[in-house]
Amino acid sequence: MIRVLLVDDEQLVRVALQHVLGSAEGITVVGACDGPGALAEAEAARPDLVLVDVHMPTVDGLTVLRQLRALPRPPVVAMLTAMATGGHLHASLREGAAGFLLKDSPPQLLIESVRVLAAGGVVCTPAVSHSVLSALSARPPASVAAVSSAPTAATSVTGDAAGDGAPGLPGLPDLPGLTPREREVLALVADGLPNSAIAERLGMGLTTVKTHIGALKRKLNAPNRVALAGAVYAARG
How do residues 161-206 score in pLDDT, each as one tens digit? Predict the structure, then answer.
C-alpha cells in the first residue's frame, strides 16, 4: 500500500486529490494539510510519498520540501503546480524533489504518477518536463516522454537509442569518472526506469542498484534522479 500525504493551502484541492487517489487500488491518503502543518503531519503519518503545492502563502512549498528532506527517513516528495514554468520548479529540483505534477492533470495520470514515484521512478508531466529538463542541460532534450495520459505509461524521460551499450540499452552517457556499470545504470535512470526494473534489466540485486545510484549522485553532484537525467542529456549533447 502506497501511503500518500497531501500538502496544499486550498482545502478544495486537498479534498479533490484525496478523492482521486483514495479511490485507486493500492493507494491510501494518510493525511492532508497546509504548509504549516506539513512537517508534524509527516512525522506522525510516516508517508511514502508527499505531494506538495509549490505556491503556498504562509509556508511555501520549497520550505516544506526542505523540511521533509531533512527528516531522518525522508519520504519521496513531488511538487504540485498550477503553472508549467517558473524558477520554483528548478529550485525544488535542486532541493531533492522527485517529480512535478500539474494540479489539473487527469485523474488516471495522477494515480499512475504516484505509482511511478513510489516505485523509485521520476515523474514530470508533459507540460512541465521540457521546462525542468531544459534547465539541466545546455540545450533542450531531443525527446521528452514523461508519464502521459495513457493509463499504462510509466516512463519519465527518454533520449537517443544509439550508443555503445549492450543490446536493448539506451545510449550510454560519455561522462568521465564513471565505471561502465555506473554508465549503464545512469542510462536506465534517465530512461525513467525504477530501481526494480533496472535490477532486472542488468541482472543485479536491488541493493547493488541503490549503491550505484548513490555513487552516481555523489560523482555528478546530483540531488536526485531528475538531475541525473539532466546530466545524461548534457552528455548526449
Answer: 233 344 345 567 778 888 989 988 988 887 777 888 889 999 999 8
Could you tell me if 120 and 16 lie in one domain? yes
Q: Which three cell numbers stand for residue 229?
A: 537525467
Q: Identify the domain containing residue 185 by its residue range.
A: 180-236
Helical ranges in 120-179 per DSSP H: 126-134
**Phi and psi at residue 124, in whole multiples of 5°?**
-130, 115
Contact indicator for 114, 93 with CB cutoff of 8 Å: no
- Counting the structural domains of the chain, the total is 2
Residue 51 main-chain phi, psi, to 5 deg: -100, 120
What distances in angstroms separate CA 205 from CA 169, 201, 202, 209, 228, one per listed residue? 18, 10, 9, 6, 21
Q: Residue 13 belongs to a domain with what CATH number?
A: 3.40.50.2300
118 lies in some domain: yes
In the Cβ-directed half-sphere of 151, how many Cα atoms lie within 13 Å?
Answer: 3
